[in-house]
Amino acid sequence: MRTRSYGWGLGLLVAIAALALLASLLIGPADLPLGRALAALSGGGDEMARTIMGAVRVPRSLAAFAVGSLLALAGVLLQALFRNPLADPFVLGVSGGAAVGALSGMLAGAGIALLHWYATAGAFAIGALVLLIGRTSDTTRLLLAGQLRGMVFWLAGDLSWSERPGYDLAVAGIALIAAVLLGRVLNVLASGELRSASLGLAGAPTRLWVFLIASALTGTAVLSAGPVGFVGLVAPHLVRLGFKTADHRIVAPAAALCGGALLCVADVLSRTVAAPRQLPIGAVMALIGAPVFIVLLRRQRSE
Fold first, then answer.
1. Contact between residue 74 and residue 285 where contact means Cβ atoms under 8 Å apart
2. pTM of the model as a whole
3. Which of 49, 96, 126, 300 has a 20 to 30 Å separation from 137 between CA atoms?
4. How far is Cα 58 from Cα 102, in angstroms, rounded to an integer?
5. N- to C-terminal Cα separation, the chain
6. Distance of alpha carbon 281 from alpha carbon 24, whole angstroms
7. What is the distance between the alpha carbons of residues 250 and 233, in angstroms, rounded to a whole number?
8. Which of 26, 62, 266 is nearest to 164 (CA)?
9. What is the pLDDT, as a whole number, of residue 68?
10. Could you please report the per-residue DSSP string of 70-126?
11. DSSP 8-state assignment for residue 160
């Protein structure tokens, strides 16, 4: 019965994600009625409508969904790795590290392929530093140490940077499959070092691989949209609350869908709230995620 309920829940989440993506495609500051937008999506309609849909909305909406999924998956991995429900690429400073790495690559004249390595290296370096601080400090200090780095990039998220949404979607799809296949391993990893050792799981190598994957996902997302915060925090928590499970075989795909839908909605708000001006999507997500972070932090301190 529980498996069936999970299936229905995932099906409902797929429908919600599809509606969010469709809303992101059809809603925008341009004066484009629904009929013209739908006609342009199907390859018909007038030239202006096809240009708006093909050159602006379709790539941006796909990028929003892909980046949201990447960040949500990175959040799931980091929360299992640190065994902390507050872990998130932005809060821990991993997104900021990826941005610094990407900017370093741009200054060095690196091509787009090398920029992914620069961004991943930056994310890994800052995350490793935060992890080192966390080993000698309490959980709160670990989170705040990363947050100091993230504050520098608080309002920097911008989906107009994205040029290859298809690549981002492919990476998110591969990462999702890997996360589901590694669901049991993530469950054991999240249960603690003692249980991991008792079940024969090589702790250090596994943690390193999970950290590398999370860094790579964050680096890819940052290259496309800048350091967008809190998706990796909010999406997994919504999923765990809705599905009432911490099983990563369920949490990973559901969080990917939820993160994609969440960022699509945030993108619609960023384009329409102050139209024709556009708000940074990082600012919109901060308004959503910062209160959630504060509530979760206070809850963790009280436990």
1. no
2. 0.84
3. 96
4. 25
5. 32
6. 13
7. 16
8. 62
9. 93
10. HHHHHHHHHHHHHT-TT--TTTTTHHHHHHHHHHHHHHTT--HHHHHHHHHHHHHHH
11. G
Per-residue pLDDT reduced to its tens digit, 75-98: 999 888 888 878 888 877 788 888
Structure tokens at 247: 């099983």
Tokens of 46: 């007038």
Buried b (16+ CB within 10 A) or exposed e, 142-179: bbebbbebbeebbbbbbbeebebbebbbebbeebbeeb
| Cβ atoms 228, 285 nearer than 8 A | yes
Write out pLDDT tens, residues 110-124: 777 788 888 888 888
Pick the closest to residue 119 from 176, 110, 130, 166 (CA basis).
Answer: 110
Q: Are 80 and 190 in contact (CB under 8 A)?
A: yes
Task: Give yes or no for residue 1 having a pLDDT over 60.
Answer: no
What span, in angstroms and rounded, lies between the C-alpha atoms of 79 and 255? 12
Helix or strand or coil: residue 111?
coil
CB atoms closer than 10 angstroms to residue 7: 11
Please tell me the distance from the alpha carbon of residue 2 to that of residue 33, in angstroms, as a whole number.
43
Give CB contacts under 8 A, 24+ apart, made by 115-121: 115/223, 116/216, 116/219, 116/220, 116/223, 118/219, 119/218, 119/219, 119/220, 119/222, 119/223, 120/212, 120/215, 120/216, 120/218, 120/219
